[in-house]
Amino acid sequence: PIFQTTAYVFDDTDHAASLFNLQTFGNIYSRLSNPTVSVLEERIANLEGGRGTTCTASGHSAQLLCLFALMQPGDKVVSSNKLYGGSITQLGKTIKKFGWDCEFVDVDDPEAVRKAVSQPNVKCVWAESLANPGGIVTDIRMLSEITREASIPLIIDNTMATPYLCKPFEHGADIVVHSTTKFLSGHGNAMGGAVVDSGKFNFLGNDKFPSLSKPEPAYHGLTFAETFGDLAFTIYGHAVGLRDLGPTMAPFNAFLTITGIETLSLRMEKHCENGKKVAEFLQAHPQVAWVSYATLPGNKYNALADKYLQGKGGSVFTFGVKGGYEAGVKVVERTNLFSHLANLGDVRSLILHPASTTHRQLTDEQRIAAGAGDDVIRLSVGIESIEDLIADLDHALTPDA
Asked: How far apart are CA 312 and CA 299, in angstroms?
């Protein structure tokens, strides 16, 4: 059922006190927890093979909540430079208001990553398993070896791959984040985010992470890592993160996402099947300069797709249209079946010109590094008829059609 309520009746004053002291599990106020949202949290934790999940109002709020437990003023996150444009803005600019910093590196270069994490104020490494928008596959095991050496957690955004294609915890990741708005929900009708903890990173006695390893004054000196063990990160996300930052997932959005997850395996199979066929069509098209899709012959990420994505390339990728910026804009405007909007992971096919939209706020250098140059078109291939999708793109790419 959908628990569309703000608060919950206590059994008595002792029950209320034990809930507020975190001595008993239960619901107090829907900013912290809600039974419908809790069902979704358990589903996502099970899908990822994690210990616990904190759901939030959006993917971006999930990212912020994740960092909130790990970072102190003056701390730094080392991040892949191949991210969704909004994440680059959030990590590169917005988090500075918390006194945090971010260093972007090419995670294809292990020595660059190793050098960056050697700084004493670095608290985590951040990357996307399958990067948006370029369809770039991250070597999770390589990053995990580096973060283990540095005794810091590896955070993987698994939005694009989903746990159907990739389970980052099996490859050494410590924390997984999602924009559930995308493939998990799958129908473009429910905003949401999730932070999933593996429960395997040892925060106990680790002075690098005082929010979890030191006494928490708001809970009478309780130490999360000591009291809650492998659930410490998740409990902190609810008891402090959601309490103080407040990015709560709506129960109805949780219900829609639970319903969407029921068909995740079916949808992902069709997404990937259509994605590959569209990529192959584009690679042979005379108006297309290049296609970045991991499983195409000769793609540099082919082996990593086999290793981490079951040999699949997903359904979100980019291609370059001949003619640059203006040609890219025209292609987007000439499509009919592909919807021009800023989302992905929908059952309906979507098209976007990142340079004029999602990555518009970045510098030219950042856009190019993220795979969002002037000629780039991003597709999120849906589950419609492949013949119709190819016909629509062929029309859009052919100037005199």
From this structure: 13
